[in-house]
Amino acid sequence: MARPTSGQSKPGRMLLALLALILAMGGVMALNKAFTPEYGLDLAGGTTVTLTPVTPNGGAPSQESLDLAVNIIRDRVNGNGISDAEVVKSGDNIVISVPGAGQEEVVKLVGTTAELRFRQVLAVGEGSPAPPGQMPTQAPTPSTAPSDGKATDGGTGSTPAPTSTAQSSPSASPTGRALSSALTAPDPSATPSAEAGAKKAARDAGDKAKDGDKAADRAARRAAKNAAAPSATPSPSATPPAANDPLAGVDTTGVDPKALERFKALDCAKDKGQGAQDAPDQQYVGCSQDGSAKYILDKAAVTGTSIDKATSGVDQTTGEWLVQLSFKGQGPQQWSKVTTTAFNSQPPRNQVAMVLDGVVISAPVIQEPITGGRAQISGNFTQVTADELANQLKYGALPLKFKTDSIEEVSSTLGADQLRGGLIAGAIGLGLVLIYSLLYYRGLGIVSVLSLVVATILTYESVVVLGATAGFRLSLPHIIGLIVSIGITADSFIVYFERIRDEMKEGRRSLRAAVEVAWARARRTILIADAVMFIAAVVLYFLAVGGVAGFAFAMGLTTLIDIVVVFMFTKPFVALLAKRKFFAKGHKLSGLDAERMSQSPAAPTVPQEA
């Protein structure tokens, strides 16, 4: 006699595992305070935004650039999940339809060009010039130039050198963001003066010199460099700067005269340069995000096209949200070169600015050359803003600059009527399947009914959880796919039931034995059928867009749920029922009686005449 399988002897374990899965998904719903699905544009309404491209010569953009922009915008919109947003090309315009709330955030996300440049800082000044007749504040001296923290090398496993005196306090940061290597958190400490920092660095260098640590040499160089930097407090004999001269105290060596003129005229309170497409092969003048500082920046040393990956995450040390970058191609070498040049330069040229769409979003002080090909942006991020910036950098820069042509609200009245009709049709179809199951399979049809109930619960929880965690929005195509998929679940338990009846007819097996033998054969058929359906859904999802992709997603989701239901509920539940006399003895209402399975008693033999 064959030994009973684990599924035969312990069907209750699988049912308990299914219950745990249902409760876990319910717990996720409770934690996110989400108990109803998020609806798409056709069911909840939303906003339609029309973007018009702006070309330098005022002519029509190329179709190639428009197609590329559509693909990038679509990736950005759907970067956090299946949002049911639609991005289509209409003539030379791009039309974006955004469901539900949060339209402004998405419009900001898709409208920015995400042109990223890493540039060495050449000069720093105040963001706004002083009014006429008023003595301007002295331009920042090298030891007090605005920066955004520090940049250190933690990605290569080297020992970090002592903190440089050129590091500024986070409170002095114009943007509140810092750039560092991917594995090193920003140091929140601040140095009160160049002289005190030089003494501290020298002491640290002396301690490390006993062991011959290479970091001591770097610390000594930094100490000497910063000690030679002019003090933040001007001496009494210092000549006061010329009135209304923004270049007073600014080192202009190697700066393009055109950049100097732009620097003099720039008022960050009026023009921050947002959306500007700065030429990477020219020096650039730009403002910080809050407009408190303006910069003269060298030619771009690294561009956004050199970014390999951009992801958002949480710093395990500080608990702050940050964006991590890794470079590809020539990016690591270019990044190492610019950080080495900045490290060997006097303040404020020991800073490297990160310019996004013409705005300086970070300008950290370089504490040591970074050779690991990785960096991170941290400070003042939330999960939303970190994800937003990571998506912008990850999916690339738009090839065109756009302006918002129109914003229109979309009503959900028509979608609500269609939803009501679709739900009625789905309820009728589900009811017919249940009635058929009960009439044909009788008592065994209870398993069909309960299987569909479990599948409905799992589908609803999946839709709600995906909406709360991945941006999934339920639209009419999704609902159609879910309703059509009722047949997939019905097919699975019909295949299993018919296998059981075949085993009982052909092999004269008992119900308990037939349940296990039939399952070994039926599960292969069920898995093959579901695999074909899932592959078709995946191919359709990636090749189609809009409503067809939504239909394919729903089909794939319910196919996976069907496998879970059949393996974790239908089969174990049938195994439990097989132990009941009502089913084991073949009661007429069980659906497993001899008459229902065409097993009539043998006809009496009639003797023949000689």
Task: Give structural attributes.
610 residues, single chain, 44% helix, four-stranded antiparallel sheet, five-stranded antiparallel sheet, alpha+beta
In words, what does this structure look like?
There is one protein chain. This protein has 610 residues and is α+β, with helices and mostly antiparallel strands. Helices cover 44% and strands 15% of the residues. It has 17 helices and 15 strands. A five-stranded antiparallel sheet has the order 7-8-4-11-12. A four-stranded antiparallel sheet has the order 2-3-1-15. Strands 6-14-10-9 form a four-stranded antiparallel sheet. Helix 14 packs antiparallel against helix 15. The protein is elongated. Residues 1-8, 132-150, 152-215, 225-243 and 599-610 have low confidence and may be disordered.
